[in-house]
Amino acid sequence: MGDGVAVFFGAPAAYRTNDLNFEYRQDSDLYYLSGFEEPESVLVIAPGHPTEKSVLFVRPRDRAKETWNGYRCGPERAAAMYHVDASYSIDELATRLPAYLETSDTLYYAFGANDRANALVTEELKRMSTARRRSDKGGMIVKNPALILHELRTIKTPYDIEGMERAVRISGEGHVAAMRYARSGMHEYEIEAIIEFIFLSRGAQFPAYPSIVAGGANATVLHYTSNRDRVPDDALVLIDAGAEVDYYNGDITRTWPMSGRFSPEQRAVYDIVLAANEKAIGMCRPGVRYNTDVHDETVKILVAGMIDLGILKGSLDENLTNENYKQFYMHRTGHYLGLDTHDVGFYKIEGDWRELAPGMVVTIEPGLYFAADADVDPRFRGIGVRIEDDILIRKDGCTNLSEEVPKSAAEIESVIAEGRATREPLFA
Ligand code: GLY
Ligand code: MN
Ligand code: MN
Asked: CATH homologous superfamily of domain 156-422?
């Protein structure tokens, strides 16, 4: 960033009802750079400043507010605790910011969803624009820090990888518990409770995203999250759920029969998706293009499978060209995974789809979705299958971080059967 100045704002609190907010979760960029977890915080990085090259603005200590709403670090302690050169009260932001901004003509700031932050930065840019003829420096170029920072976040460090392994392991434990403890007659939310019990009891702070527990045709709604229905005994249940552990996100999907046994139609669809998932994971290594090579291979396997089942007519090539398959496979094969579930990072660089590189973590999540009213043989209607794993790219290949979660139909049936045969409680 040269002598550019970067400014990062903490995530604003999100209103839930009346005077209560959603549980607070720090902005991933600010957290990645500072580790600071409180709202109303700002991180400034100013390499051109003589003494304060990194500064945190934080909420002041307040006995009454801390009694009601929780502890605050306070400006007196923030610099030492978070390894920045200086820390000040957030109340001093507007008066102190110019001293940092005016160390460079380049400001790194991401205009985005935080309207208060956008307004404050806009004011500063206006002020500097007026003052510029006499101030010599400040506010001539605005760059999005994503160009540098999201590139850093795309390639995980050993510390990140350790965090990802923990988040994915706990996510996987939740999925195994769901297979083992779900019982005939349960509602989607009861299975959600099993999974999220495991997440939280293993130290996760939150589910990484609203857990999807979708019985039967609900599984054909990609981001179904209401989770209110009873799962019919002859249906599949698709569970897409991940734990967030110390800001790192797991993102795993498994699909299995509520009865404990796949029907022939369910099994046929399942095995096609499984073949696509396994083939794609097998391809993951540095130099392979995720958005073309890997995605295109999943499409081929899914399309060939649907032709075999008589769901698609015509040849493989015809179907790849006419894209009729998009009625049943309408999403990409996956995304980067990290501090955000749909993690930051660029998929295309200078016109080319990007190659996988060591340190990336991506999901592989092919699926097939035959809605209740789909134009297919009625035997396949209401079947939705997705199988999602979290893959760490290594120098010589990849590691499937969610490998421990049962995936073949036989393995899944045996875990369900074993779970139902034991009488052990979910917690003792
Ligand atoms: N759970 C969201 C996704 O798989 O992308
Ligand atoms: Mn998912
Ligand atoms: Mn995903």
From this structure: Creatinase/methionine aminopeptidase superfamily (3.90.230.10)
